[in-house]
Amino acid sequence: DMDEAMKEYHAVIKRDPGHVWARNNLGVLYAKKGQYDEAIGKFGEVLFRDPQHQAARFNSGLTFLKIGEVDAAVRQFRLLLKTNPRHVGAIVHLGQILFDRGEVDQAIDHYREAVAIDPKFGPGHRYLAKSLMKKGDIAGAVAEYRLAVRLMPQDSLLRFRPFDADGGQTEAVRELRQFLKLHPERPDQQALRQGAEAQLRAWGATP
After folding, report:
1. b/e for 8-24, b at 16 or more Cβ within 10 A?
2. Where are the alpha helices (DSSP H) in the chain?
3. How far is C-alpha 123 from the chain's CA centre?
4. Is the pLDDT of residue 191 over 80?
5. At CA 100, angle to CA 98 and CA 103, rounded to 5?
6. How much is the pTM?
7. 73-97 pLDDT, tens digit each
8. Residue 49 in contact with residue 39, Cβ under 8 Å?
9. 3-state secondary structure of 50
């Protein structure tokens, strides 16, 4: 229970005000509850005590992103990379920010750096594929999507991608069927499911 966990963390902090992990974890729970100001405050308390605390720095950046404070998020991710230049999460999130700003080439550089550091980091391959697709590098994008699926086989959204773009329609049919199998039948997900089903029918395949 989240509320009980929060009570426990508050108790730990009361007993030991210097317990930075309790403060960080409490911040994570505040963020999960949508109490972003409180979350940022807790991460700030950690970073005041330990400016090189990587988890708190990263979580702070993520939370700033959630409230639309992109410049503040960028600052947190860059500070984190000064502490740990190989933090692939920070590198990928900076890449996503660059992509959203239309700076696709720079985003690709970030994603390539991330997967060079950790070739098994699935999100890096996923976002690299998306960026390559944006640039028109279909073959490169499909190769990265295949890697991402291999690394994150249960991620249903990865199945909803244009494998047919490089002529692999048989593979595309198989992957879209797997997408429909894995993706939840929730009302808020119906548009994606309907899109996959429509594409299969367009190819003359049954969903």
Report:
1. ebeebbeeeeebbebbb
2. 2-15, 20-32, 36-49, 54-66, 70-83, 88-100, 104-117, 122-134, 138-151, 169-182, 190-202
3. 6
4. no
5. 45
6. 0.80
7. 999 999 999 999 999 999 999 999 9
8. no
9. coil
